[in-house]
Amino acid sequence: MSRLLTLLAFVVVVLGGGTLIGYVTLPGDWYAGLAKPFFNPPNWIFGPVWSVLYILVAIAGWRVWQRDPWGGAMRLWIAQLVLNFLWSPTFFGLQQPGLALLVIVALLGAISGFMVLASRKDGIAAWLFAPYAAWVAFATLLNASIWWLN
């Protein structure tokens, strides 16, 4: 039962935190007025994609926590979550795509580092981050393109 409660706590923190930050920093008129690249997805896609990714991130963090709660992989998991939660307020809240680009590049580095360290103790946790890494790599390209075009 304790393991299930811990998993639930991870899901609540990650999915709940991500949802709250997304709600507080919804794209508004500023974002609508920006020039965007041809590959910019429609706004409605972000909510469902992030919901799935946040659940995968929570499960990966929970799995690593079970094996090594104070290890390097867990520290990188925390770092990536902090950076993830900083990106929307930086991009949408502060309206600073250049600064947000720095945040997302650091996020991608933390995700990659987590995958490397997690793979040594829990290959499943590392692989759970693969879709997240792919999406954040795409988001990095999108962020860079928006910065460049504006």
Automatic annotation (TrEMBL):
Membrane association type: Multi-pass membrane protein
Record-given protein name: Tryptophan-rich sensory protein
UniProt keywords, alphabetically: Membrane, Transmembrane, Transmembrane helix
Subcellular location as annotated: Membrane
Lineage top rank: taxon: Bacteria
Keyword tRNA-binding among UniProt keywords: no
InterPro entries: TspO/MBR-related_sf, TspO_MBR
Lineage: Bacteria, Pseudomonadati, Pseudomonadota, Alphaproteobacteria, Hyphomicrobiales
Transmembrane segments: 44-62, 74-92, 98-117, 124-149
Family designation: Belongs to the TspO/BZRP family.
